[in-house]
Amino acid sequence: MPSVLIVKTGDAFPEVAAKHGDFGVLFEQPMKRVVPYTIITVWDPRAESDAPALAGLDGIIITGSNSMISNAEPWSEALKPWLREARKRNIAMLGVCYGHQLMAEAFGGSAGDHPDGREAGTFEVERTHAADSDPLFSQLPTRFMAHLTHGQSVLIKPSDAVVLAFNSHDHHQALRYGPRQWSVQFHPEFNTDILRAYIERMEDALIEQGEDVSALIKKIAETPHSTSLLERFMTFL
Q1: Each residue of 118-134: pLDDT tens digit?
Q2: Which residue in 178, 189, 183, 207 sits closest to 85, CA to CA?
Q3: pTM for this entry
Q4: Residue 189 a catalytic site member
Q5: Is 208 a catalytic residue?
């Protein structure tokens, strides 16, 4: 039976967790649909400082967070050498949002505030030519919709990372670091209801940025292609 560790770097908003489950549940459900007998463990490094042993792990997923990668919190910095060792062992990995930025920094890149501010809503993402031969991304259409909510981004990718997807806001929407190690800025675990709750939570900040919040909410749409990444990731364990 495959064994997957979900590294829970943050908490979903209370109203989201009450209705849909916290981040551990949001990632576990689609994975279990593909491989019901998967052994899934959730580890919160903010509360438990001792990292789980890598031996015996087939996959690692690093979730999003309301924390900022630029704050370099001790629990977050401590994950970087652990992730480098996991990559060295070729354990399958998928980082999402904060996890995306954390993996990029762990492998030699840098992340921080996006110069154009927050990206929040359902937006189009485009695959690069490099994605044509990527085992995880090659099955996606050239352009697909994704749920996004982030104020920080990968600003400089690791020198050996391959850009797999981008859009007009962010040049690093998806990166590959090795044969089974990926990260994405968008949220494949979100549905339309969850994204709407996040936008409503950030309404004041978005208005201050000059965004039309009602228009962002109106444009929220299903994202079957980006959502499918979680299920396909399971085939690489």
Answers
A1: 999 999 999 999 999 99
A2: 178
A3: 0.97
A4: yes
A5: no
